[in-house]
Design goal:
- The protein is built from ten helices and 14 strands.
- It has about 400 residues and is α+β, with helices and mostly antiparallel strands.
- It has one domain: 3-Layer(aba) Sandwich (Beta-lactamase).
- The radius of gyration is 20 Å and the shape is globular.
- About 50% of the residues are buried.
- InterPro entries: Beta-lactam-related (IPR001466), Beta-lactam/transpept-like (IPR012338), Diverse_Enzym_Activities (IPR050789).
Length: about 400
């Protein structure tokens, strides 16, 4: 039987709004959490309901605090999908044009050194086709210059112009996109996420902990490496401490920050913190009938951008507008997560020992949001694609739980 996430609506979940549930609710019998149990949460959703399936492990090993279904965690590159939703909302409002030269927003020329007459656009950046590369780094701390980073030839693919450059997954594009959104709107990036994505859905999230309540920060999931070493978001990474990258000798203060100058300080490529129940509500907004976040036209544009085959890719075989397609028919890719032949869309995340994902099937209207921590690093430089065996086992376990319901 091909189940995957087929029809959660058929489950006896009650009302047609997200049900109330205990914070630690799980689809399996609770087991005592130990430091050896990685913090793990899986939440399934359909158009009408949200259901925690697996909630286990310790959010903070130093205190023994067990993880809860909606405890906030750094979701890594799923953050790019949220940024794309903000960009599309601003495009729908006429604030930005996805195909305009980003130089017009930033106030300086953004050009690949070998192609000074070819503009760079938001669409190219969100398709990873702008020619930007991560070779010279992508974190530009407060006090450093995004403009100078973009003038470094090492930041660009040298052999083809933007728009015709081969697909190359590049984190450096995210600070450019976020800075454009700031410059066009006059708002800081974290405020844009709140206004355009989180607030309309009645959820709480934040970029580098900026804008989240103290109560939310107190529930942070600390990220551990497989060795047990703390990777991110222990007490030293949380407010009131400094939560943004800062250049040497620069005060950790956003008081004088000018929107559009360097949104890298908000880590748009991977720095969103959000709980899985709230992330599932983002997924719900993408499968619900009606326009709860972005228009149906924009949703279809994202899906269509992810559908074309990207030659030469083993993992990002279908990707566009910061949306990835998994298990598309007639592709030979390392992207079989559900292994049921159903094409799903969304984004993966990987950083600091964490693997995460938000995936949905627009046909059935079902989806899943998850994270697992303390995952070992990739074993070689060539091992750049595919899901970790722990992710595969986690999804298989979640599918069995759904089948049992």
């Amino acid at each position: 039987m091909k189940l995957a996430l087929a029809s959660l609506a058929a489950l006896a979940l009650g009302a047609c709004t997200p049900p109330a549930f205990p914070e630690g609710a799980s689809g399996v019998s609770p087991q005592p959490a130990t430091p050896a149990t990685p913090a793990t949460v899986v939440v399934a959703f359909d158009r009408e309901s949200i259901t925690p399936l697996i909630v286990e492990g310790l959010a903070d090993r130093s205190t023994g605090r067990e993880v809860k279904a909606n405890d906030p965690v750094r979701i890594a590159s799923i953050s790019k999908l949220l940024m794309a939703l903000a960009a599309l909302r601003l495009a729908e409002q006429g604030v930005v044009d996805l195909d305009a030269d980003v130089s017009a927003y930033l106030g300086y020329k953004v050009r690949s050194p070998g192609f000074p007459d070819t503009p760079v656009t938001l669409r190219q950046l969100m398709d990873h086709r702008s020619g930007l590369r991560d070779a010279s780094g992508y974190v530009i701390p407060l006090g450093d210059s995004l403009e100078e980073k973009l003038q470094d030839p090492a930041s660009w693919y040298a052999d083809a112009p933007p728009g015709r450059a081969p697909f190359e997954y590049a984190n450096i594009g995210s600070p450019v996109v976020a800075s454009v959104l700031e410059a066009a709107s006059g708002e800081r990036y974290y405020a844009l996420l709140n206004r355009l994505v989180f607030d309309p859905l009645g959820i709480e999230g934040c970029a580098n902990w900026i804008g989240c309540s103290p109560e939310m920060a107190a529930r942070a999931v600390t990220l551990y490496r497989d060795t047990g070493e703390i990777a991110r978001d222990d007490v030293h990474d949380l407010p009131p401490g400094c939560t943004i990258p800062v250049a040497d000798g620069v005060e950790c203060s956003l008081e004088d920050y000018v929107p559009g100058s360097n949104a890298s300080v908000f880590s748009p490529q991977g720095g969103v913190r959000i709980g899985m129940v709230d992330l599932a509500r983002v997924g719900q907004a993408l499968v619900q009938e009606g326009e709860t976040l972005i228009s149906e036209r924009s949703i279809q544009a994202m899906l269509a951008a992810a559908d074309p085959v990207i030659e030469g890719q083993e993992f990002f075989c279908g990707y566009g507008l910061h949306m990835q397609a998994l298990e598309t028919p007639e592709r030979e890719c390392m992207d079989a997560l559900f292994k049921d032949g159903v094409t799903r869309y969304g984004h993966a995340g990987e950083a600091y020992g964490l693997r995460s994902g938000l995936w949905f099937d627009p046909v059935s209207g079902t989806g899943i949001a998850y994270f697992i921590t303390a995952v070992p690093p990739r074993q070689s430089a060539e091992d750049e694609g595919g899901f970790d065996e722990r992710e595969l086992a986690l999804i298989a376990r979640s599918q069995r739980l759904l089948a049992e319901r």
